Amino acid sequence: MHSIKRDLFINVVILSVVVVLIFGSISMIILYFSGMSSARETIRHKNRAATYFIEGYFKKFYTTIDFLSHLRDVRLAPYLDEKSRQNVLEIYGLIEKADSDINYIYSGYRNGMLLINNYEPPEGFDPTIRPWYTAAIESYPEISWGEPYQEIKTKEWLVSVSKALVDEENNITEVLAIDTSLEKLENILWDSDERYRSSYSYVIKEDQQIIIHHDKQHLRHNLSDVVKKSLSFEKNYGSFEYRLNNTEKIAYYSRIENLGWIVITVVNKDEITKPIFSQMGTTILLFIIASSILGWFMSNSFSKKIVIPLLMLKERVNRVIEGKLNGQSISEFPDNEIGTIADDIFRLTGKELYKKNQELKAINEELERISITDKLTGLFNRYKMDEEMRKAFYLWKRYQRPFSLIMIDIDWFKKVNDTYGHQIGDKVLQELGALLKKSLRASDIVSRWGGEEFLVLSLESDEKGAITLAEKIRSEIENYSFAENIKITVSIGVCSAKNHETIDELLVSVDEKMYIAKQSGRNRVVGCE
């Protein structure tokens, strides 16, 4: 005959093993995919930061080149007197002094003349055969962006932005150029973070020619040739993997349209997977320890609560059989011991438990409200808005129920904080949040997305309707007097769900449109259509 205590122990052990296998497997899968997802998101954000930096870094050079190209003395320097040429050099010098990112501003002319400050070209120097000159000729009439080359004397690597200028007969007479240090850009893009020390960024052209990279042996080489793998960059952003020097790498890229560049951010794959596998191992160990403790506890608990009472019952039954407990009702034994005690406990504690449950319910409701609300404005926070957007995206994918995103960013908000102080700046944000709630439909959802950015989820709305709503919001904000009679404007991007595969793609699209609105002069609405 089997011992009930032995059978109970075996069953508890089997149950513990099953729990470890099921929950351990589920946990491993969740840990791996959540870890990889988090890592890719980190790389994506790092790539976007590098992209915005590069775009802003070279945008000012574009503006400077465009400005100088319209100056008469710059275009006609070979035909003017020495004083006029000195004036040109003075202008170059002032701009160089104002912008520490500029190494040189100079202009090379078809007759071999070179206008440049604090530089003596070597004997026999011919500007028309230099890389920055030929790149500008090839790119005419557009500006040549990011031509890496070595300075002829110091062999220092520079990146040149240049533009070919023409005379009245449309003949190219000169090239105007700005040089910046490639090493400075490399150091910024090479800068790794504490989480992924192997991460860095670099830049390629549309033809995959590497133009900015911390490892100079890769410069001017084709990326597909370097990684020995055919790569395609048809989309504006995306991810891929490749092997370099026997190291697997995960990469994310994004395109800078107006430069024709592609910024790539990479990290060693094992730097991502090793911590994940380490965490998985720790989790498995914790599951084993927890299941062992649980098994021991359950076995001991069941033994006390079930086995011992059953043994006592057996003893009582034996005593009845032996005639030692005449008149004892064995069948009522559990009810007499458990039912009566339970009934007494429920009557004594029922009222108090109800009271405690109500208190806990109120606390939980308040905690839930705090968890989804922005403390300053009282609007939904980013976490709650992300949840609502994903619901709307699911309904659009499944049932084609339309919705639009409206991203709002306050123009020049830093000036408000700098001029009136952060307390007034916070008050402006609060008033703007209240104004947005007042301007929107009951079905629309608005949140503070971050800093001075707000995001509106317009349900059952196509892009045309969302743009109309956005224009209404922009106008009301422009005409509203905020705290201290402050006037502000906003730049707004609008996009509807169309061919987007994920909500993140839609967010990137609307963010780009908002950015375009800022670049186009601010205080305007830009849609995706």
SSE inventory with pairings:
Blueprint: H1 4-69, H2 72-75, H3 82-98, E1 104-109, E2 114-116, H4 131-139, E3 144-150, E4 157-166, E5 172-181, H5 182-190, E6 200-205, E7 210-212, H6 223-227, E8 237-244, E9 247-256, E10 261-268, H7 269-321, H8 333-372, H9 382-399, E11 403-410, H10 413-420, H11 422-439, E12 445-450, E13 453-459, H12 463-478, E14 490-496, H13 503-519, E15 525-527
Parallel strand pairs: 14-15
Antiparallel strand pairs: 1-2, 1-5, 3-4, 4-5, 6-7, 6-10, 8-9, 9-10, 11-13, 11-14, 12-13
Oligomerization: single chain
- Helix proportion of residues, in percent? 40-55%
- Provide the residue-averaged pLDDT: 82
The counted number of beta strands is: 15
Shape estimate: extended
The main sheet orders its strands as 2-1-5-4-3
Q: How large is the count of helical segments?
A: 13
- Structural Rg: 35 Å
* N-end to C-end Cα span: 80 Å
Strand content: 15-25%
Largest sheet: 5 strands, antiparallel
**What's the SSE pattern?**
HHHEEHEEEHEEHEEEHHHEHHEEHEHE
